[in-house]
Amino acid sequence: MGSFQAGQYETQASVRMIDVGGASAPEAPTDLHSTGVREENLSGMCLKFALTTQHFTTEWMAERLCLPRGMVTRMLEELNTHRLLEILGQSDSGSYRFMISDRGRERAAHLMEVSGYTGPAPVSLEAYTSLLDSQCNNFPEVTSKGANDALSELILPDDAKHIVGLALMSGRSLFVHGPSGSGKTSVGRMLHDALEGYIWIPHCIEVENSIIRLFDPQSHEVQPLDLSPLEERRVDHRWVRIKRPFIMVGGELTIDSLDLGFNPALKYYEAPLHLKANGGTFLLDDFGRQRVEPEQLLNRWILPLERQIDFMTLRSGQMVQVPLRQMLVISTSMNPDELIDPAFMRRLGYRVYLGHPSHEQYTQIFARYAAQYEVAVTPSLTERLLARYVAEERPLRSCEPRDLIERARDICRFQKMPMELNEEILDLAWLGYFGVPHVGV
Question: What is d(CA 402, CA 384) in angstroms, rounded to the nearest whole number?
Fold first, then answer.
């Protein structure tokens, strides 16, 4: 089978941006051609919506398709001309009320067999690619101060902060390795906080007669604009303004989950998570613990990231070329030399090792987390705690001050007393966390 690329059809269009509400937004299409989507597919979506209700108005249909009312009016009139819809009369707003005809039901049922998607009208793959590239090329530049501010909650060596900042500024991938509990996942999360700006993404994308749903309320945080009614009409509501996405996956990731997911009941596709991460950060956590060989996962990303394109497969076998514009962060607590071939390792952007904290760093982390609960920590308390690590030959981990203090908070709440850190409470917290009683330090 051949591959489908953006720009293959003349009806597909780029996106014009306008200034509204103090920000840029995609301009609403002025006619069916400027939607970038085939007219017959939009008319088919009207029929499928009509099949789901007894009767509807022009406004009802326009709201569900996220298209201008005038454009929807013309489509409904055309469907009425072909006796696929029947006019019931005028609505309260002065437009018409419609119902689907028997002939329209037959057509809609056939369309449902091809794709059961009913929702906002799609945009073309070309339009999505064009606007994504434009936005990614114009994001605010990450500064060293921005990176340091984002990582300020973590106690990290200066060289580690510097390397993370370089990865973020360059947009290259970042490979973070080290023992468990050293803050690798936190680095990935906080690194994303340095990315400024927002991004417009479509509800869904049309590829030939297939629909790929991209917007996901569970993965994307909507950033609405405060617009006047006039400005609302100027904006293309097939697009959603979101915060730059942060998506994390762990051991549950499989090769199949990196391709389009087909819903056999509704007959449309769901974009994979790494496609939903476009414009933001994709964190692959616990690398090496997936149910797939590490080399296979890297094969799926390294070359596509370098070329900034990936290929997805439709059920027909058709290959679809999609853009890949994201920051990839990989974290692992396993030995990289046992996971990755040197040839792959060389293709990764930046690498940083996060080891066990020193006694001084552990003390800083403990004091900083306690300060969040407005609890004072005496030097003797942390010295006693550190001595216990030494006595039990237990390595220090950056996550454990947080974990012990949170268990101390649980103890105080259980005993209905104000939050406090003392030897007795910490001994009980230690027992609840490590399962080892106090042996006298």
Answer: 17
Q: Is residue 239 domain-shared with residue 320, that is, in the same domain?
A: yes
- DSSP three-state, residue 233: helix
Q: Which residues span the domain enclosing 385?
A: 359-434
Query: Are the C-beta atoms of 182 and 397 separated by less than 8 Å?
Result: yes
Model pLDDT, residue 2: 47
For the chain, the C-alpha Rg in angstroms (whole number) is: 27
Note the pTM of the prediction, 2 decimals.
Answer: 0.87
Give the Cα separation of 70 and 58 in Å (integer). 9
- Sheet harboring 85-90: ordered strands across? 56-57, 96-100, 85-90
Q: Strand order in 174-177's β-sheet? A: 246-249, 281-284, 327-332, 174-177, 350-353
Per residue in 169-197, pLDDT tens? 888 889 999 998 888 888 888 888 888 88
Are both 277 and 255 inside the same structural domain? yes
CA pseudo-torsion sign 404, 406, 409, 414 = negative
The DSSP 8-state label assigned to residue 256 in this structure reads G
Both 193 and 291 in one domain: the answer is yes
What is the number of alpha carbons within 13 Å of residue 15 lying toward its C-beta? 28
Name the residue with tokens 């964190």.
283
Do 108 and 213 lie in one domain? The reply is no
Two structure tokens written together for 34? 């400027």
Give yes or no for a contact between 212 and 353, defined as CB atoms under 8 angstroms apart: no
Whether residues 86 and 208 fall in one domain: no
**Cα–Cα distance for residue pair 74/31, rounded to 1 Å:** 10
Residue 144: phi and psi, rounded to 5, are -65, -35
84 within 8 A of 47, measured Cβ to Cβ: yes
Distances, alpha carbon 340 to alpha carbons 96, 327, 406, in Å: 64, 20, 36
pLDDT averaged over every residue in the chain: 89
Tally of domains within the chain:
3
Are both 84 and 135 inside the same structural domain?
no
Q: How confident is the model at residue 221, as a pLDDT?
A: 96
What is the C-alpha separation between 25 and 179, in angstroms, rounded? 44
pLDDT per residue over 91-104, tens digit each?
776 688 999 999 99
Note the pLDDT tens digit of each residue in 295-353.
888 877 777 887 889 998 888 888 899 999 999 999 999 888 888 878 777 778 899 99
Q: What CA–CA distance (Å, rounded) separates 360 from 343?
A: 38
Beta strands in 339-416 (DSSP E): 350-353
If you count DSSP H runs as helices and E runs as strands, how many of each does the chain have, helices first? 17, 20
Residue type present at position 215: F
- In the structure encoding, which two tokens stand for residue 378, read together? 């005496």
